[in-house]
Fold:
Amino acid sequence: MASVFEQIGGKPAVSATVDGLYERLLADPVIAPYFAGTDMDRQKRHMRAFMALALGGADLYAGRDMAGAHAHLGVTHDAFDRVVGHLVDTLVALDVPGDLIHAIGDELAPLRDQIVTMEEERKAAKVLAITRAGAPGRAIRRGCTPCTPGALRRCSG
Structure:
């Protein structure tokens, strides 16, 4: 059976997808700041090579692993979902059949855990700033028992 890369039309289809995707990403006020100061020609080359590999094409990707490449960006689940939405919209605009869009999604979905740092979610779930005797301004995790001065050394909250 042909790979997803071959089914969508190979290198020309991946190139068109990447170009269309970045047009959408750079027009999105939430996503565009992630690319501030980025050499977009280089970024597109990396993305073309990565997408080709991820979809079963030639292994020409020589970039960093996904976690390393995105670790410093603070990517949220919302941002990841927006990029996926733009990718789907791009594929639809290029007349890629729905079953292939789903196949592409299946290939790329596992990357969420590598790309999303969840820093925003950790902060939201973790912090209830309180002031306690012996622990001024100490933040505790929801669900923690109240910290005592001796417990602060053991508490990661």
In short: The helical segments are 4-8, 10-27, 40-54, 66-70, 77-93, 98-108, 112-115, 119-126. Residues 122-157 have pLDDT under 50 and may be disordered. The two ends are 51 Å apart (CA to CA). The first strand starts at residue 128 and ends at 129.
